[in-house]
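Let's do one together. I've listed all components of the complex below, 362 residues spread over two lines.
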Amino acid sequence: MNLLSFLRRRSSAPIARERLQILLAHERATVGGQPDLVAVLREEILAVIRKHVNVDGDKVQVKMDRGGSVSTLEVDIEIPSLTPAAEAVAA
Amino acid sequence: MGKVLVVTSGKGGVGKTTSTAALGAALAHSGKSVVLVDFDVGLRNLDLIMGAERRVVFDLVNVIQGHAKLAQALIRDKRLENLSLLPASQTRDKDALTEEGVALVIAELKEKFDWVICDSPAGIERGATMAMRHADVAVVVTNPEVSSVRDSDRIIGLLDSKTERAEKGERVEKHLLLTRYDQARAERGEMLKTEDVLEILSIPLLGIIPESREVLRASNVGAPVTLSNPQSAPARAYADAARRLAGDTIAMSIPTDRRGLFDKFFGRRAA
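Okay, and this is what the predicted structure of the assembly comes out as:
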């Protein structure tokens, strides 16, 4: 058991504390009955895009990273190409 | 077609989620594709133990209720690309786990993965029975302590009666995983020994995980212990257990973190 691994072990509790603070801040905001922000954003973003193109629900990937001060929402939508062939199939 | 494994125990706090994460990561590390499914609806924790809590978008209940596709709810592990997680939801509605819904999700996961590992909640309520329902293999996590052994016995009874396999007259392959084992205390007669637990429960031994500070450290940093410190005693014990699950024959030993002076314990035969 060398000094390095000893120091490394000591440093894990602050990581746990920070992870919990971030997680619980988000959970307290959503579990209390308010609608899940991710779900709301996803549906509204999709609705806007559907006004212009036909979007297949299976072709949507949503990624989330909840942070302390900043969270990121990544919505990956596969939009069908608007070539004449594709439009003919759609029609 | 993948195998469905349930990690169960009856009693809470014995190490089901720790074991699910560690065994899953060890199997994935050996090249198998693995998905971990959290059945603890309302009190999910596997996401936290796996360090994926910030990335949960959809969950098992969303998939069952048709609000999300399975592929959208699976979270790919950042350390092992063939390891995925299907989180439980935080909803309080336990009835959200419908029998048909769970059957469909498990069937789809079996198509995609070599191992579908279901992390059971404590108790014998719906979440626990749903987690074991489709199991081919069961890992019964037990501490060398009277209440844990008693609850494991109840769970073994349920595995033999309430699972799909049992109802078809087939067997669920059952394995005992003894966790938080303290060799020194067992030898001093202060703790049930491996052979005591094996004699009482009479199911084959998958592994003995020594009590270790590395387990708490792994949970603090959000990594399975087999990844956070692969050389640690519990990690080596879990890696051996995972190889036994995969069909390898490995001599049973209780690894130890203490080197040098205590080297004589290293590789000691158990049972």
